[in-house]
């Protein structure tokens, strides 16, 4: 129809543009109501220590379950949430919810796990992240030393001055700071030195091919070595096979996260990994693929 009207012979839109625009409008209107309607849930993915083979932390990952759309992946709704300015509210909700959950785990006798929470760049650009973190920590009584904020390279690159100040203040509170998806942006390790980071997470795309692609293996090894020189702990994301695990263990990677150990799961399943949910129990390895 648009095609026929276009006198110069070019299309104003086609069918696929039309349906994409429609999907976006539908997603956007539902997303606006999702927080109020309590459609978000936090899942937790275990992080395993290389040294002990036990779960020492979890990453909080948001899920959106809409009655009509079903489960919508973060990759589908978070970019839109950033665009329409909703991501800050979502992040705040995830932070509050996961810190409350951490408190419940502690009361149930779990060891003090590190709680890693993703933070969108918008918090840094135009929002009071420091205030939010301070408030949530005091509301939940959580030890700041158990909270780890995950930032991306883009965040650090975009707002250097302000970010260094904010990160330094968070650091002084005792909060741990991680760089997420390392290797996908354009920053170098020496650039990272300007920020008071504790943890570096190697992006899943490198881990995917460490066994088959010598370049990815070399990048991963160099990253681990330099990160250790800078006194950063190294987490490997997306560990899916025993071969990847062995390679990473053999090359001094500190912490593993991935489907080999566990998908992101609900809070009760994290508690179950430590035996009875309501009693004190020693930490346990999460699964058999991890050799003693
Ligand atoms: P991320 O922070 O890098 O989180 C890791 C992602 O990799 C998660 O995807 C996780 O489910 C997935 N993953 C973990 N292990 C494996 C594996 O072995 N194989 C494969 N193929 N995937 C694995 P998810 O949950 O879909 O989240 C995608 C991204 O969305 C996250 O990447 C993060 O950037 C963002 N995100 C999730 N929750 C939040 C949130 O509460 N706030 C913000 N701002 N971003 C979030
Ligand atoms: Mg993350
Ligand atoms: Mg990541
Ligand atoms: Mg990410």
TrEMBL record:
This is EAL domain-containing protein. Residues 24-278 form the EAL domain. It comes from the Bacteria. It comes from Geomesophilobacter sediminis. The chain holds residues 426 to 717 of 721 of the full protein.
């Amino acid at each position: 129809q648009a095609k026929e009207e276009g006198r110069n012979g070019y299309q104003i839109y086609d069918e696929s543009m039309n349906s994409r625009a429609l999907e976006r409008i539908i997603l956007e209107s539902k997303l606006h109501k999702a927080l109020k309607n309590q459609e978000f849930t936090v899942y937790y993915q275990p992080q395993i220590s290389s040294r002990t083979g036990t779960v020492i932390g979890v990453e909080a990952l948001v899920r959106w379950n809409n009655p009509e759309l079903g489960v919508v992946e973060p990759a589908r709704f978070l970019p839109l949430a950033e665009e329409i300015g909703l991501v800050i509210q979502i992040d705040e909700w995830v932070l509050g919810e996961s810190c409350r959950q951490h408190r419940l785990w502690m009361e149930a006798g779990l060891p003090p796990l590190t709680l890693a929470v993703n933070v969108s760049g918008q918090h840094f650009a135009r929002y009071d992240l420091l205030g939010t973190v301070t408030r949530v920590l005091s509301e939940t009584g959580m030890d700041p030393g158990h909270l780890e904020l995950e930032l991306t390279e883009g965040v650090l690159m975009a707002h250097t001055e302000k970010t260094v100040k904010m990160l330094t203040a968070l650091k002084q509170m005792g909060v741990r700071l991680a760089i997420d998806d390392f290797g996908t942006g354009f920053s170098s390790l020496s650039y990272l030195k300007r920020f008071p980071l504790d943890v570096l997470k190697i992006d899943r795309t490198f881990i995917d091919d460490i066994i088959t692609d010598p370049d990815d293996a070399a990048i991963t090894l160099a990253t681990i070595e330099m990160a250790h020189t800078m006194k950063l702990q190294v987490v490997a994301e997306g560990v899916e096979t025993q071969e990847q695990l062995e390679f990473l263990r053999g090359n001094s990677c500190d912490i593993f996260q991935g489907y080999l150990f566990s998908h992101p799961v609900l809070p009760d399943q994290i508690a179950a990994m430590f035996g009875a949910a309501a009693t004190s129990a020693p930490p346990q390895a999460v699964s058999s693929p991890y050799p003693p």
